[in-house]
């Protein structure tokens, strides 16, 4: 995941002060996740916490703008431009069937062996429940909206 750019060429729009503390908390969590030792884990497993924090931060901004309607359009666009949220992931969340999507790599058919979607996109009723199913890319245990 790309780091959040904090090059503030112009002042943030009004309303940023109310959410700044939460965004700084996400930034602190991201630094902790990047600096944790990952001996004994595969390269992909060491990136799972970073994917999860990025997802949480994007979901927080999505809910502020679309669900609660507590931030302005200008602030929302500024946050996307500064890299605080993933605009493409948020665009997918607005579509039917992708409301709980964990990352964009899980729906890219080029990333899988048989040109399908990731195992976390399969409804739990169709997966053997005895196994602990985890996405290889992000560690998700199921982001299908049909669960």
From TrEMBL:
Q: Which family does it belong to?
A: Belongs to the BUD31 (G10) family.
Where it mainly occurs, coarsely classed, is nucleus
GO cellular component annotations of the record: spliceosomal complex
Sorted alphabetically, which keywords does the UniProt record give?
A: Nucleus
Name it: Pre-mRNA-splicing factor cwf14
Location of the protein in the cell? Nucleus
The answer, when asked if Nucleus is one of the entry's keywords, is yes
Q: Which GO terms describe its biological process?
A: mRNA splicing, via spliceosome
The protein's matches in InterPro entries, at most eight in alphabetical order, are given as: BUD31
Pfam families cross-referenced by the UniProt entry: BUD31
Q: What is the lineage of its organism?
A: Eukaryota, Fungi, Dikarya, Ascomycota, Taphrinomycotina
């Amino acid at each position: 995941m790309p780091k959040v750019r904090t090059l503030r060429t112009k002042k943030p729009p009004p309303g940023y002060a109310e959410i700044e503390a939460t965004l700084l908390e996400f930034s602190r969590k991201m630094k902790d996740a990047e600096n944790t030792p990952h001996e004994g884990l595969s390269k992909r497993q060491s990136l799972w916490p970073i994917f999860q924090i990025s997802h949480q931060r994007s979901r927080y901004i999505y809910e502020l703008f679309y669900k609660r309607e507590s931030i302005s359009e200008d602030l929302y666009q500024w946050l996307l431009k500064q890299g605080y949220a993933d605009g493409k992931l948020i665009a997918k969340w607005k579509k039917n069937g992708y409301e709980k999507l964990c990352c964009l790599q899980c729906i890219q058919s080029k990333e899988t062996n048989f040109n399908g979607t990731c195992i976390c996109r399969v409804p739990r009723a169709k997966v053997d429940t005895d196994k602990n199913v985890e996405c290889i890319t992000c560690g998700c245990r199921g982001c299908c909206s049909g669960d």
